[in-house]
Amino acid sequence: xxxxxxxxxxxxxxxxxxxxxxxxxxxxxxxxxxxxxxxxxxxxxxxxxxxxxxxxxxxxxxxxxxxxxxxxxxxxxxxxxxxxxxxxxxxxxxxxxxxxxxxxxxxxxxxxxxxxxxxxxxxxxxxxxxxxxxxxxxxxxxxxxxxxxxxxxxxxxxxxxxxxxxxxxxxxxxxxxxxxxxxxxxxxxxxxxxxxxxxxxxxxxxxxxxxxxxxxxxxxxxxxxxxxxxxxxxxxxxxxxxxxxxxxxxxxxxxxxxxxxxxxxxxxxxxxxxxxxxxxxxxxxxxxxxxxxxxxxxxxxxxxxxxxxxxxxxxxxxxxxxxxxxxxxxxxxxxxxxxxxxxxxxxxxxxxxxxxxxxx
Length: 360
Fold this sequence. Notes:
The protein has helices at residues 4-20, 308-359; strands at 32-35, 39-42, 57-59, 74-76, 90-92, 107-109, 124-126, 141-143, 158-160, 175-177, 192-194, 208-210, 225-227, 240-242, 254-256, 283-285, 291-293. The chain is rod-shaped. The chain is built from 2 helices and 17 strands. It is α/β, with parallel strands linked by helices. Helices cover 19% and strands 15% of the residues. The protein has 3 domains: 23-139; 143-264; 277-360. A hairpin with a 3-residue loop joins strand 1 and strand 2 (39-42).
């Protein structure tokens, strides 16, 4: 953001130049109320150049001074809409929309809000210095002291909170809600920060941070998601971090929870059928909480990720082996019965022989 002293020097010079410029043909009577075309003017040189413009209201020194044919403008405060020639602008506060020329549909509330805007349109700035440097950017919304204060030509940004997106100049489609949110972003796009100091140091693109301090120290990392966490991440990309500090510089990682969480419940997993379970892998977890597919030491396909199909095949082999063992056991039982029967027959024969010999 420009040095504030430099800003006020520019402001004073602008006012001085217009104050010393030759007076145009004044309205008659002098500005002190209602005029034809449903116009209202009150204050030195307010609506001084008006010709055919309608439904304008100018209250304050030099307010709407250059307006000639433009309509539906409202300027309340010294120098508001001073050089404006466009329609449907509203400026409330000293110096608000002072430099606006052809930009239409802008709303500035607060001293020096949208001060530098020239032809940017559909901007809304509420707060001292909000969108101060904007010149050609359009469809920006700034609410808070110094919100989007450095923005020049970037479009479709939303900043709500003191110093939200304060350094942004050309970055587009960013959303910052919270004091200091996305405060360091300059030219990156598509970031969303919600919470105090969320993405405060960010200079990357496509990040989403929700919660106080979320991804606060991320600098060049892009496409990260942080929810109430990620404050340790600095340069990594494509991370998802929820309630976890994260690790500086790591990428392509999901981290959820902290050592404070000791139990995990996830609905929709237990007893849920898979369309093709045979092609599904078995999930393992190590001592650090890292999830992944793995192998069992005694698995027939050791060295390859373990799939449910492998478990099914192993179970089938075991079932076949059990059937074979059961058949063998049945055969052995049958043979044992035959042996027992044969043994009984032999024993009976011996007993009969002995009785015959005794009878002799």
